[in-house]
Amino acid sequence: MKSHVKAVVIGGGVVGCSVLYHLAKAGWTDIMLIERSELTSGSSWHAAGGFHTLNGDPNVAKLQAYTVQLYKEIEEISGQSCSLHLTGGVMMADTPERMDFLRLAHAKGRYLGMDTELITPSEAKAMFPLMDETNFVGAMWDPVEGHLDPSGTTIAYSKAAKKLGAEIVLRNRVVDLTQQPDGTWNVVTEQGTVHAEHVVNCGGLWAREIGRMVGVELPVLAMEHMYLGLWAREIGRMVGVELPVLAMEHMYLLTEPMPEVEEFNKSTGREMIGVLDFKGEIYTRQERNGILLGTYEKACKPWSPVNTPWDFGHELLPPDLDRIAPSLEIGFKHFPGIEKAGIKQIINGPFTFALDGNPLVGPVQGLTNFWCACAVMAGFSQGGGVGLALSNWMVHGDPGFDVWGMDVARFGEWAGLRYTNAKVRENYSRRFSIRFPNEELPAARPAQTTPLYDTMLANNAVMGDSWGLETPLWFAPKGKEPKDIVSFHRSNDFGPIGEEVRATRERVGVTEIANFAKYEVSGLGAEEFLNRLMTNRMPKTGRIVLTPMINEFGKLIGDFTIAKAGEDRFMIWGSSAAQKYHMRWFEKHLPKDGSVRIHRFDQTLVGLSIAGPKSRDLLQKLVDVDISTKAFRFMDFREMAVGGAPCMVNRITYTGDLGYEIWMAPAYERLVYKAIKDAGEEFGLVDFGMRALLSMRLEKNFPTWFRELRPIYGPFEGSMDRFIKLEKNDFIGREAAAKEQAEGPKLRRVSFIVDAADADVMGDEPIWAKVSKDFGTVEKPHGYGAPRFDNAGEEVRGSKAAEGASAVRGIIDGDWRVVGWVTSGGYAHYVQKSMAQGYVPAALADDESAGLFEIEILGHRRPARINVEAPFDPSGEKMRS
Ligand SMILES: Cc1cc2nc3c(=O)[nH]c(=O)nc-3n(C[C@H](O)[C@H](O)[C@H](O)COP(=O)(O)OP(=O)(O)OC[C@H]3O[C@@H](n4cnc5c(N)ncnc54)[C@H](O)[C@@H]3O)c2cc1C
Fold first, then answer.
1. ∠ Cα 840 842 846 (to 5°)
2. What is the pLDDT of residues 158-207, one digit of tens each?
């Protein structure tokens, strides 16, 4: 075993082996995988081996597609078969709602390059004759599904990595991890210590334990800075990372050989396909001459909820048929052919999940060169993509794709052990349930609350979870239960939100905005630091700017409101969900000389926003300074007492109207809210929630972070032109942005008015245009920088798909083509229009003609028209008044 390597990968499951392979392939060959036992000694060996491309997040779906494409490559390099069976599969819908869900998934597939097809239950039965098709209303066929040999595949990755020069050390447990003052790592193992520049946690079932091993040796200099005195070193050693990951027991059963299966194979010359049955929470497929059937049961059970035993390995857990009996009952009704078969074996094994079922990948914020690739619940669908993204990140400094959906930074400190336990159980038991666009999930709530929580409940607020914080979404009328009726269509919140919007637009409204991210950047180097990170000029003292942040590739990685609060002090507001993501970037670029300090407030700073034509009159009653139009201008920042409480006030609101954001310590929030409510009475003040706020931003054509603005778009594509000051100084990504401007963006973000019926867009719907010109590929970009899908040219196609023709993907229909995709939208209540935002080829972005566009909502193509000017206050007169 070497004593020094560039990177140590901990864990020899399918994910660790994939990471090792991809690192070696990217040119890092001085790397070592350390496995505590034999390869596949965690969950990898007993997996059912199924794979598919479909995922709720289109960007994760892309990486799953890459994984499937990769198998041929690793088989060739390693000489080891993965026993790939590309059978295709169907998802069966038993209700109209589930059929709507499939229509949405199918529509997404139009620009994802997926060949899904909506088919009838009878067509599904022809491919899987063991089903009783009368239980279903429809189905979706996906040709890129199948199964493989999990152990063979893991070995194939490992052999391919070894051929490229990587070292694998078996039967050697990593027992401790210590970061040295220079950022490198001492990886302490049973066989000695390995010094490494990078450490990757691919510990699968033990990923949590590996996170907890992390300790940082603090240099003496840092001790002084941290005010921790003599104990700093010990505190540093105690750092530990509690990753939000939990193992769940999972069962599948294998039947004895079945004559029906053998007969089907013989008569058709084909294997039976995979089937996913939402109602029964069942997946099933052919395994040898019998059937494999697995369930995601409601009565699910975590495994080793606090500590994973180190002596667990190649054993299975005792089966518990009672727990899965309700699913089996439905399964046998839906697939009567299986009920008759004898059960040969029941497998019960643990595997890991993060809160939302997607992996945890990337560098852990606050640590140097400590990487994660864990909580991969579908290692054989996702392992390749995870390995590719992580190796890009480590070797090239960025993942190469929009990996937000699996970024380890997407959960905050609130996602501790108990929170994770509740959310993972909820996620597991809902694995095959529909998540409606207006559905808030209840587990582990309330986690964080502001001082106004009880008041909001008393006001009949329907609360939502905003990055772990309870936030008012809308207010139900008095006497009505404050509860969403979940639906793909307009629902019971439609009327009340309309009222909130109208009252705000015509009088004045107040809403809680504690869920925004808030930071303070200070120090002698603060302005220079921000000028280097942001595309816009920094404001003068007392003024505010809006500014995107881009990476070296010229792609959008942030969108902020920045106020200069003092000579060397800036206040920053951004997207709450991106707090760790952004802190990671800020910390990476912080000057080493200590000239800049950055502080994330989280919930130590909370906020209220008042908006509407009467908002100034209202605020004036609460402050002792002049806030007339001239004295406190649009985009001014001022510290002032509001209702007697020390506050920071921004003259800006996301409603796009006259309005203010008022920020204060939580201890003052009740006081300020009460003052606003009391003073607001004479102006007809209403409470409004996040949904009304989002409706109002739509009629102003304002974008949102993580919807319209994501790391797959350039700033000019995102129509953020006026915030990109190429001439100001050399900021990160300037060169790439200048190139995008010079060449002209390929895409443009636009707003549409949609002729919708009783359902508005939700995001990810295809945009059709009646155009003669082929705009080339309509596939949504997923990566940035140079394309890094090495084998992207060789797409895997199932038996039903015709070779590569775009018509197969359903992107051409006569003169109509899919030219783009929706990012978000909804009903703009004040202008009374259904609106959508999305991306189309730049050449079409200014064309407001009627009859040119259609947007597919729940399987129906609805006429849509580009709307360049915001329908509400297009000149910004009200906002500036
Ligand atoms: C019953 C069942 C059915 C499944 N079916 C499917 C399926 O059909 N399709 C699919 O894609 N996925 C399926 N899965 C999930 C799949 O098994 C996992 O996604 C996958 O195994 C995760 O791989 P991993 O490498 O992250 O973790 P693991 O396989 O758990 O590997 C982690 C490795 O790290 C090693 N390790 C841990 N700590 C240390 C340490 N301190 N020092 C050294 N080594 C260490 C362990 O020994 C282990 O070998 C199934 C799982 C189960 C249980």
1. 90
2. 999 999 999 999 999 999 999 999 999 999 999 999 999 999 999 999 99
Each residue's pLDDT tens digit, 768-797: 999 877 776 666 665 543 333 333 333 322
Tell me, using a 6 A CB cutoff, whether residue 360 lines ligand 1.
no
Backbone angles phi, psi at 530, to 5 degrees: -70, -35
Q: With a 6 A CB cut-off, is 13 part of the ligand 1 pocket? A: yes
Q: What is the DSSP letter of 656?
A: S
Residue length, the chain? Answer: 881
Ligand 1: distance of its center to the CA of 113 in Å?
29
The answer to whether the beta carbons of residues 339 and 258 sit under 8 Å apart is no
Element (H, E) at 65: helix 58-78
Q: Which atom of ligand 1 is nearest to the CA of 347?
A: 1
pLDDT score of 608: 98
Mean pLDDT of 539-567: 97
For 252-262, letters b (16+ CB in 10 Å) and e give bbbbeebebbe
Choose which residue among 1, 17, 19, 44 to substitute to test ligand 1 binding: the one with the highest number of ligand atoms within 8 A of its C-beta: 44
Return the pLDDT at 63: 84
Report pLDDT for 805: 35
Distance 206 CA to ligand 1 centre (A): 9
359 lines ligand 1 (CB under 6 A): no
pTM for the full predicted model: 0.94
| pLDDT value for 347 | 95
Among 18-27, 105-114, 148-157, 476-485, the least confident range = 105-114
Pocket test for ligand 1, best of 1, 206, 308 (most atoms within 8 A of CB): 206
Cβ(349) to ligand 1 under 6 A?
Answer: yes
CA atoms within 13 A on the CB side of 815: 7
What are the backbone angles phi and psi of residue 369, rounded to the nearest 5°? Answer: 55, 35
Asked if residue 764 lies in contact with residue 104, where contact means CB atoms within 8 angstroms, the answer is yes
Q: How far apart are CA 474 and CA 804, in angstroms?
A: 46
Q: Which two tokens stand for residue 618?
A: 């209202």
Residue nearest to atom 21 of ligand 1 (CA): 44
In sequence order, which residues have a C-beta less than 8 Å from that of residue 68 and are 6 or more positions away?
A: 51, 53, 86, 144, 146, 381, 384, 796
The residue among 640, 658, 732, 655 whose CA lies nearest residue 694 is: 655
Question: Nearest 5°: phi and psi at 401?
Answer: -140, 170
Is the CB of 14 inside a 6 Å radius of any atom of ligand 1? yes
CA of 203 to the centre of ligand 1 (A): 8
Task: Calculate the alpha carbon distances from 396 to 70, 385, 389, 495, 553 in Å.
Answer: 20, 16, 10, 50, 11
Could you tell me if the CB of 35 is within 6 A of ligand 1? yes
What's the number of CA atoms in the CB half-sphere (13 Å) around residue 835? 26
Query: What's the sign of the alpha-carbon dihedral 398, 404, 407, 410?
Result: positive
**Closest C-alpha residue for ligand 1 atom 50:** 47
Note the pLDDT tens digit of each residue in 631-663: 999 999 999 999 999 999 999 999 999 999 999
Q: Answer yes or no: is the C-beta of 640 below 6 A from any ligand 1 atom.
A: no
Distance of CA 427 to the CA centre of its chain: 15
Q: CA 633 to CA 613: how far, in whole Å?
A: 15
Outline where 659-743 has alpha helix (H).
669-680, 690-698, 734-743
